[in-house]
């Protein structure tokens, strides 16, 4: 569950991008395995799967 409260810090760990993608393509990856501290990996995953 990701809370979006603004357009800067809410997006800084990649989880919001991943959540958005996972909503439309849940089979693409297991969202529950993502960790907020893995920022680079989260962004790479989101933009690779998009």
From TrEMBL:
<dbReference type="Pfam" id="PF00307">
    <property type="entry name" value="CH"/>
</dbReference>
<dbReference type="InterPro" id="IPR001715">
    <property type="entry name" value="CH_dom"/>
</dbReference>
<feature type="domain" description="Calponin-homology (CH)">
    <location>
        <begin position="1"/>
        <end position="50"/>
    </location>
</feature>
<dbReference type="InterPro" id="IPR036872">
    <property type="entry name" value="CH_dom_sf"/>
</dbReference>
<dbReference type="InterPro" id="IPR050540">
    <property type="entry name" value="F-actin_Monoox_Mical"/>
</dbReference>
<protein>
    <recommendedName>
        <fullName>Calponin-homology (CH) domain-containing protein</fullName>
    </recommendedName>
</protein>
């Amino acid at each position: 569950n990701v809370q979006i409260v603004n357009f800067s810090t809410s997006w800084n760990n990649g989880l919001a991008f991943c959540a958005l993608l996972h909503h439309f393509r849940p089979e693409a990856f297991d969202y529950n395995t993502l960790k907020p501290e893995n920022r680079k990996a989260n962004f790479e995953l989101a933009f690779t799967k998009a």
